[in-house]
Amino acid sequence: MLYFQPIxxxxxxxxxxxxxxxxxxxxxxxxxxxxDFIPLAEETGVIIPLGEWIIREACRxxxxxxxxxxxxxxxxxxxxRHSDLPLLVRSxxxxxxxxxxxxxxxxxxxxxxxxxxxxxxxxxxLREMRVRLSLDDFGTGYSSLSYLRRIAFDKIKxxxxxxxxxxxxxxxxxxVRAIVDLATGLDMTITAEGVETEAQRLCLLHQxxxxxxxxxxxxxxxxxxxxxxxxxxxxx
Length: 236
Ligand code: C2E
Ligand code: CA
Ligand code: CA
Ligand code: CA
Prior knowledge:
The protein contains ten helices and eleven strands. It is an alpha/beta fold. Strands 1-2-5-6-7-8-9-10 form an eight-stranded mixed β-barrel, surrounded by four helices. Strands 3-4 form a two-stranded antiparallel sheet. Pfam families: EAL (PF00563).
């Protein structure tokens, strides 16, 4: 099933959207973490039908929220290699009636390990459809800045590993500052992930982040609860 974690505006703390996060409730093992089962789904190829279900389900649920509230969906690099993503996204949007501008696709740098012309073409088509593209876990993967010149990302997500030891750790703070500078120069929206403390929030706000996501605001919640939060746009 999908859970949804609020993403809030940095200044006002109002809900801008939700990230869809996959959950597997195993009959014997309880909740299994996506960090454990996504790699398995990728190895076995199950990620293709599963990924299709995730996009359709996320769009279907988000279409019930007020018009300004967006949904972010995580994509696996395998989905770029073995499926026609623009075709799938177009059909999910049509079926659900969700506006393309309300769908964000979260992509990690690992997609660019094999930056084939086909992958580049898919990202360009998605952009032309007005779907938002977001660069996830920035700085943790096989960073190469060259793809930032070729693909216009709307958003960059600062990984929680850089946020964790703020505001006291110097290297984390320096990296956050560098990412904010880079993203500002490229007109990208900057979201900080894994914000857990008020001190982190203040530090990131001061550095110029636009959006926050983390336990300080809310954990991922079931769809029903997300719908209630979306209608209010405010967190309790
Ligand atoms: P991610 O995309 O970086 O997602 C953020 C993860 O951080 C989520 O873990 C979220 O629950 C967790 N998180 C949010 N706020 C905080 C916080 O304040 N502190 C801490 N410590 N953690 C926080 P989750 O849901 O376990 O997902 C783990 C990873 O699994 C995701 O990392 C993503 O890479 C992958 N994943 C989850 N859902 C999907 C999906 O639908 N499709 C694909 N392809 N991957 C998914
Ligand atoms: Ca993500
Ligand atoms: Ca992330
Ligand atoms: Ca992560």
